[in-house]
Amino acid sequence: MLTQLREIVEQVSKVDDLRQSLDILVIETCKAMKTECCSIYIVNEEKKHLELMATKGLETHKKSVTLDVNEGLVGLVYRTVEPLNLADAINHSNYKYVPEIGEEIYHSFLATPIVHRRNCLGVIVIQQRKQRSFTDVEESFLVTLAAQLAVIFAHAKSQGQWFQSNRNQTQIFSGIAASPGVAIAPLWWSDDQPKLELVSPCSSLDIDQELENLSRALELAMKDFRKLRKRLVNDINKDTLAIFDLFIHLLNDPILREDLKKQIKSGDCADWALRQVVESYAARFNKMSDPYLRERSQDIKELGQRLLHFLYNGESVEYDWPHPVILITQELTASLLASIPKGKLKAVVSMEGAANSHAAILSRALGILAVMGVDIVPQKLHNKKSIVDGYSGQIFVRPSRTLVKEYKQLLNEEIELSKLVEGEIEENTQTKDQLTINLFLNAGLSADTSIAINKGVKGVGLYRTEIPFLLHHRFPSEDEQTLQYRSVLKAYPNKPVVMRTLDVGGDKPLPYLCVEEDNPFLGWRGIRFTLDHPDIFLIQLRAMLKASVGLDNMDIMLPMISGLKELDEALAFIEQAYNEVSELSDYQLKRPKIGIMIEVPSMLYLLPQVAKKVDFISVGSNDLTQYLLAVDRNNSRVADVYDSLHPAVIAALKHIIDISNQHKLPVCLCGELAGDPIGALILVGLGYRSLSMNTSSVAKIKYILRQVSLAELVIMVDKINHCYAAEDIREMMVNFLESKGLGGFIRAGK
Ligand code: PEP
Ligand code: MG
Fold it and tell me: Per DSSP, what are the bridge partners of residue 439?
């Protein structure tokens, strides 16, 4: 039966037209289950009905057959989201007689819902004339089939191939709201990759160089395919995944490699050699009589295309467009955002990633609206006028005039709101009952060395040093780092700047340091990496200390500390670097304050000991949430589980501030929660007095804090402590903000 199941799914997923694939499905299911009737009903959520989309065994006379979701046995299966196995369906109280479809001849009835991620997309039914219960094996066959169909359906739906009555109707796609705002512009999918068929004959005298280029492209392509395969392994069907196996297999094929090398050794440039070899392989497959093998010719061409990309582009691509666009990208990266001309980018729609990935943080820091983890076919959407709602994570392609009007209105309100908050940027951050909150900036991720002096903040609460490391092709030298850090320290004279030591690993791999790990977030990351590399660590520490000479405004912070031993080791390195730099200069080098990030949950239980060793702590709520809830901050599939308002995270935050206050340990919070209106209010209510956030959040958070009093926040937090789930906390806070006339800051889109 397993083979039959696989065959059905393979046949269905091969056909592009969904309606046609359903027709095949019902016929094949009847065959496999030796039954007389099989039907598929698909739910229409708007109209709240189930439509008979395909059937073998019922009479439809080309008329559409629909059932209200509250009607009949099919409606019952849809509502209960459970299989139903009946020997005599006609006598069931929920049976609904539908005239003219000829259903009355069937007695036995087995139906199962088609569920994707808790969402019922439809119902599959098999029926027989004979009165009998279907066996357990038959039932589990249908359940397994439905589970696989759900993946195919969900994919078709997200790709805009779902049943649509009107082709001009607005298509709606959903992703994760990663950076707020509203944008109206055409979508832009750049397909400006070099084309293999356009490569012209070219010869080279430097054969070794060409061979090296080829082998680098082969390695990069291999890594890329592996990465893609790994990413998709749970998401797409076996058939589609096999393509990656084929690519990887081909890239490793000694004959193909040898043919490419031979062509280069005959004097051809690598790209021209690639075109010739790929075309000759493709032609060979094309001649084969087996249709399956013939199709492989296309795969070879695709492989050649990818290799060509890596031959030309080991590095980043420059972007420019004739008008402002909403950019669709496979993966949003720091270098992509860094390379886009300002003013040309209205929003980014990324097919991968989640709201707390570093790329998402970066887009928020840059004030670029972003929606991530969207499953789309980008080619089909290129140049289509669209609206991106960065509050709800929705993308409306070909929006109606009314929708555009509504969103234009929202956009205007946004502009008004930002004028209002910007007007108060230089005011004190004081609540209505005169409590001062210290606002700091998170800097560094934007790859922008010319960070403007921000009058509205007390200093920099987190300077992420990773970007200079990520943008280089090698580790930056001590002098290069000194220069970079000094420019930052100089931008904030007389204000503290907390420089965090290198936090690479996790989702910030260095391009020149290849580390393959199954669980990078639980692996060689942050302080673990730098302690294993005293060379790199000491260079960075010395560069920071040298950069601070005469400015005296630098503090040092250590990321990802998970135990006291690590902390002691890191402190010893700081001491060593301090002594080395002190010896070099006549100047009395100021000792920086030393702090650690509290982002690994183990540190919650070591705070009293930590208080004896460091000058301050800063809570990294992004990672703390990830590690406390065991949920990858980058994985769009579990993005709804990642929530910093989870009661356990709130309890941890309360524990940190309470224990730190007991031990007189200064605390700041520098995760994304600090720049979120709801988060900031809760944090102040919990007792936090220092918050560090992205530039784009400062004015907004300052404005909000000035409209509330500590007394009311304490009452709110007290209520929150009794909440059952993040949703309840959010709802309570939304109501609170709305009652204060601050609803516009958290407004969800339409
Ligand atoms: C955090 O984890 O909250 C944090 C501020 O650090 P990063 O986002 O750079 O990991
Ligand atoms: Mg962190």
Answer: 691
pLDDT > 90: what percent of the chain? 50
Query: Relative to the alpha carbon of 672, which ligand is closest?
Result: 1
Closest ligand to Cα 358 = 1
Residues marked as catalytic: 358, 670
Q: Could you tell me the fold of the domain covering 211-312?
A: Enzyme I; Chain A, domain 2 (1.10.274)
Residues 6+ apart with CB under 8 A from 292: none
**Tokens at residue 95, please?**
């049976």
- What's the CATH code, domain 424-745? 3.20.20.60
Which segments of 234-376 are extended strands (E)?
A: 325-329, 345-350, 369-372
With the most atoms of ligand 1 within 8 angstroms of its CB, the residue from 466, 623, 688 to mutate is 623
CA 640 / ligand 1 centre spacing (Å): 19
CB distance 670 to ligand 1 below 6 Å: yes
Nearest residue (by CA) to ligand 1, atom 4, is 620
503: Cβ below 6 Å to ligand 1?
yes
CB of 138 within 8 A of CB of 316?
A: no
- Residue 622 CB–ligand 1 contact under 6 Å: yes
pLDDT category at 336 given cuts 50, 70, 90 is low
- Say if ligand 1 is within 6 A of residue 694 CB: no
What is the helix, strand, coil percentage profile of the chain, to 5?
Answer: 50, 15, 35
Closest C-alpha to 337, from 384, 377, 372? 372
Closest residue by CA, ligand 1 atom 1: 620
Where do the H-state alpha helices sit in 159-269?
Answer: 207-232, 238-252, 254-265
In angstroms, what is the span from residue 511 Cα to ligand 2's centroid? 20
Q: 625 or 99: whose pLDDT is higher?
A: 625
Cα 70 to averaged position of ligand 1 atoms, centre (Å): 48
Q: Which CATH number fits domain 2-158: 3.30.450.40, 2.40.50.140, 1.10.287.110, 3.40.50.720?
A: 3.30.450.40
What span, in angstroms and rounded, lies between the C-alpha atoms of 65 and 60? 7
Strand partners, 387: 184, 396
Structure tokens at 236: 């797409």
Spans of all domains in the chain? 2-158, 171-192+318-422, 211-312, 424-745
- Range scoring the smallest mean pLDDT among 212-216, 242-246, 278-282: 242-246
DSSP secondary structure letter of residue 138 = H
d(CA 685, CA 713) in angstroms, rounded, equals 5
HEC string for 423-484:
CCCCCCCECCCCCECEEEEEECCCCCCCCCCCCCCCCEEEEECHHHHHHCCCCCCHHHHHHH
pLDDT tens per residue, range 153-187: 887 776 666 665 455 677 888 888 888 889 999 99
Q: Which atom of ligand 1 is nearest to the CA of 462?
A: 5
Question: Encoding tokens for residue 136?
Answer: 């357990």
Give me the phi and psi of 129, to 5 degrees please.
Answer: -65, -40
Residue 554 DSSP code: E
**Which atom of ligand 1 is nearest to 506's Cα?**
10
- Ligand lying closest to the C-alpha of residue 620: 1
- Residue 464 Cβ inside 6 Å of ligand 1? The answer reads yes
DSSP label at 675?
G
- Give, for ligand 1, the residue of 440, 626, 670 to mutate: max count of ligand atoms closer than 8 Å to Cβ: 670
CATH number for the 171-192+318-422 domain, one of 3.50.30.10, 3.40.190.290, 3.60.20.10, 3.60.140.10?
A: 3.50.30.10
